[in-house]
Amino acid sequence: MENLPLPEAVRVAPVPMALCAHGREGVSFVCVNDAMVRLTGHSAAELLTDGWALLGNETDSPGADAVRDVVLRHRNGGALPCRLHAAPVPGSDLLVVQLVETPHAPAPDATLLRDFRHRVMNHLQFIQSVIHMQSLRIESEPTQDALRDLGARIDALAVVYRQLYATGTDGRIELAEYLGQLVANLSSFYDREGRITVSVDAPDSSLLLPVERAFPLGLIVTELVVNSFKHAFRGRSGGTIRIALSGPGAGPIVVLVEDDGPGVADAAPTVGKRLGLTLIRSLANQIGGTVAPEPGRGARFVITVPLA
Fold first, then answer.
1. How far apart are CA 143 and CA 165, in angstroms?
2. Co-location of 72 and 133 in the same domain
3. C-alpha separations of 15 from 39, 78, 134, 169 in Å
4. CA nearest to 47, candidates 13, 83, 86, 75
5. Cα separations in angstroms, 33 against 48, 116, 241
């Protein structure tokens, strides 16, 4: 990943971020990223045109306080409680702003658990931001690559906590939604140009998996998809990565991960290193599942996960 100017670094960040400036007309946006657009419901053009006033009054705008809680306005008119993180850009009047959505008041018996999940989610997002910003300051390509891979693994856990927070205290994850968000984030990490088509096929969108099995599965899928992004499309202008879910029926959940690249057979001497097979096997053993390659065009792996 090349060294990026600050506005571009904000745009490609995986968490809601913006670059803001103070002026006589109030706080304006210099740039916003896609995660900020998704959080607020406003388009980038709306935010850049109307400034902070679109989200709330000036008392809720970013200022000298490094971290504080604010209640903003979503595009649908609803309240959007957030924790606002602001950091000044040295030598300018600009601020880098990150928003983290905070929970509405939960039922009394769920308060502690939801608060814990929310705090974990906040910490993971902060760690992701630090890793992302650090990777942009490092010139060593192998180090940049390692930091990006680390960020992708942390994201697998962050997505779990975001879904747990959004859906309550049941402790189970909707697998199609989880993997869909996971691979969408991986695309933003590894394919900013949008060359690669990534899809998640799930005939039954209500497949549920306990979080203690969903997170290791998410890491396995992350390792395989990252390997495809890195190695399957060299010298090509595009390609496809597909994740397909089936089950459970009377048996385990089955997850297929495949790409239309050259496959891994010719890379046998280094496949253990490149696929992170040690981590994949360890995670599969942890959940009592299996990961097996299948013949065919491109890399193709079948993951089985028992429900109990």
1. 33
2. no
3. 9, 21, 15, 23
4. 75
5. 11, 27, 25
Residues 36, 301: Cα–Cα separation, whole Å: 34
Tens of pLDDT, residues 216-259: 898 899 989 988 998 888 888 889 999 999 876 667 889 999 99
Strand order in the sheet with 253-259: 196-201, 239-246, 253-259, 300-305, 290-293
In this prediction, residue 32 has a pLDDT band, given cuts at 50, 70 and 90, of: very high
* Domain end marker among 120, 135, 170: 170
The structural domain count of the chain equals 3
Cα 21 to Cα 87, 89, 97, 245, distances in angstroms: 12, 10, 10, 46
Q: Tokens standing for 114?
A: 């939801």
Q: Encoding tokens for residue 90? A: 């040295």
| Token pair listed for 70 | 């604010």
Q: Are residues 212 and 279 in the same domain?
A: yes
Cα end-to-end span (Å), the chain: 41
- Residue pointed to by tokens 């205290």: 169
Whole-structure pTM value: 0.61
Specify the length of the chain in residues: 308
Domain that holds residue 132: 103-170
Amino acid, single-letter form, for residue 241: I
Distance, CA of 241 to CA of 226 (rounded, Å): 10
Angstrom distance (rounded) from CA 180 to CA 174: 10
